[in-house]
Structure formats: structure tokens, C-alpha cells
Amino acid sequence: MSDLDPTLPWLDALKWDADGLIPAIAQNEQGRVVMFAWMNRASLQETVHTGNAVYWSRTRRRLWCKGEESGHFQKIKSIRTDCDGDVLLLAIEQAGGISCHTGRASCFFNELHGEQWVPVDQVLKDPKEIYAR
Amino acid sequence: MSDLDPTLPWLDALKWDADGLIPAIAQNEQGRVVMFAWMNRASLQETVHTGNAVYWSRTRRRLWCKGEESGHFQKIKSIRTDCDGDVLLLAIEQAGGISCHTGRASCFFNELHGEQWVPVDQVLKDPKEIYAR
């Protein structure tokens, strides 16, 4: 993969996959990686314009403003891309301190212990409460 | 996507994509996200068995032990997966403090400033020196 060309218009400089998507990693104020999702051009533009993370939901096939149901919006602090411009890294401020639909701070709560995935992080809020609104 | 089933054998619990791959995010000791790459089953097994990050190179179509050319091996501290088991997060110790082929600490060195990607991190070592061995 050739390196990112920063002289191109910023959206064209990125390498979109065959489906027009790019992976996006969200990292919170404490430096925890909290989420991984996908963006298309429209969602990245929305993200930049609104200042809140907007992803492309591959299952629902629509733009998905993180927090639209849960209230757990992700305020954008900065957006980076990698050397070859095919992944995004979002520094975010996580509303409510919860990024995962299970009510945990991060989606990455399953740790490999020997040959077993063990949920090692605590649930901060019951999902029933989060999605009851 | 249904949530990860931790009662399944650990490799089967993960959701491999149509190409048999899963994205892997590497985070260093300082909490910086330094790399994003792909793994297949064999590379993840190698990673676990050797204790060093081994990825699947989609361009070269072969297992790729990070550091095999540069010496910048990534020692595995822990491996996590997310709520639905379709992404890996590796906590690593980065040999030489350089993860990127450009000689920077992290591959994520391009920051969006207005409508421009700006390389904001410093090159720690000339790539010519890194790959001269």
C-alpha cells in the first residue's frame, strides 16, 4: 500500500475499501480503546461537521450517530489516519463514560485467559436502563 | 451482530470475516494506538504461541511476524476482543519504540487540521537505517 498523499483533498487521500468504507477506532479521554466501527464518506463528513462520531451501520445500512438511542454521544477531539490512510483513529470524549451497548466503558472487555475469553470489565449501567428511554 | 459466546472454543467464538480474517488493533505501553492490521486463525495462533504479534499480510498473502525485517517486534501483554467478538485489541510492548515503517512511534501520525492531513509526529529513526539490516 502506498503512503497517504497529504496534498490530495482530505477525503480523497483516504483509501476506501471496495464497499466505500474505512475502519474507525475510537479512543476515549483515558486512552482506552472503546469501540471499532466503520465509516463511509457521508458519515465521516457528518462526524467532522457535527463534532460527534457518526458511523455507517453495516447491518442496518444507514448512518448511525453514536448515542442517538443511548445518549452516549462521542464528542470528537481529533481525527487521525495512519501511514497509508486506510484506517481512522478518533480521539473522543465519551458522554456518560459508557461506549458499549452492554453498559461497559469499552467494547473491548473480553480478555483471553489461557484458552478462554473472560469478561474482565464491570457493567456500569444496566442496558435495560440505557435503552429504556 | 450477536454477542460473543465465551463458552465456545476461543478461536470459534471469534467472528472471522468472509476472507477468514479479523482486524487487530495494537496499543503500546503508553496507551498509544500504534498499528492496525489483520489476522487469520494461523496468525492468531502463532501470536499466542510465540508471544509476538504475527499478522496476516493481505498484500503479500502470507504470515508476517511484525519485526521480522525491522527488528521492531511486538511482545504481547494481553489480547482482548470486543462485545461481538469481531475485532482484536492487543496490548503490546514495542521493541525499539517504533511501530511504523516510516520510523515513527505510531502509524497514526496524520491529524486532520481543517481540510488537510498533517503529519504531527516526529520520525524517530530513518527508515533507511531500519531496513538496511
From TrEMBL, chains A, B:
Domain Phosphoribosyl-AMP cyclohydrolase: 35-109
EC numbers on record: 3.5.4.19
Keyword Zinc annotated: yes
Record's catalysed reaction(s): 1-(5-phospho-beta-D-ribosyl)-ATP + H2O = 1-(5-phospho-beta-D-ribosyl)-5'-AMP + diphosphate + H(+); 1-(5-phospho-beta-D-ribosyl)-5'-AMP + H2O = 1-(5-phospho-beta-D-ribosyl)-5-[(5-phospho-beta-D-ribosylamino)methylideneamino]imidazole-4-carboxamide
GO cellular component: cytoplasm
GO terms (BP aspect): L-histidine biosynthetic process
Protein origin, superkingdom: Bacteria
Primary location recorded for the protein, binned into one broad class: cytoplasm
Pathway note: Amino-acid biosynthesis; L-histidine biosynthesis; L-histidine from 5-phospho-alpha-D-ribose 1-diphosphate: step 2/9; Amino-acid biosynthesis; L-histidine biosynthesis; L-histidine from 5-phospho-alpha-D-ribose 1-diphosphate: step 3/9
Annotated Mg(2+) binding sites: D82, D84, D86
Details of cofactor binding: Binds 1 zinc ion per subunit. Binds 1 Mg(2+) ion per subunit.
Keyword terms, alphabetized: Amino-acid biosynthesis, Cytoplasm, Histidine biosynthesis, Hydrolase, Magnesium, Metal-binding, Zinc
Essential cofactor(s): Zn(2+); Mg(2+)
Binding site for Zn(2+): C83, C100, C107
EC category: hydrolase
One matching Pfam family: PRA-CH
Compartments reported by the entry: Cytoplasm
InterPro entries reported in the protein's UniProt record: PRA-CH, PRib_AMP_CycHydrolase_dom, PRib_AMP_CycHydrolase_sf
Gene Ontology MF terms: magnesium ion binding; phosphoribosyl-AMP cyclohydrolase activity; phosphoribosyl-ATP diphosphatase activity; zinc ion binding
HAMAP family linked to this entry: HisI
Subunit structure: Homodimer.
PANTHER family associated with the record: HISTIDINE BIOSYNTHESIS BIFUNCTIONAL PROTEIN, HISTIDINE BIOSYNTHESIS BIFUNCTIONAL PROTEIN HIS7
Biological role stated in the UniProt entry: Catalyzes the hydrolysis of the adenine ring of phosphoribosyl-AMP.
Family stated for the protein in its record: In the N-terminal section; belongs to the PRA-CH family.
Protein name per UniProt: Phosphoribosyl-AMP cyclohydrolase
Lineage: Bacteria, Pseudomonadati, Pseudomonadota, Betaproteobacteria, Rhodocyclales
This protein's encoding gene: hisI
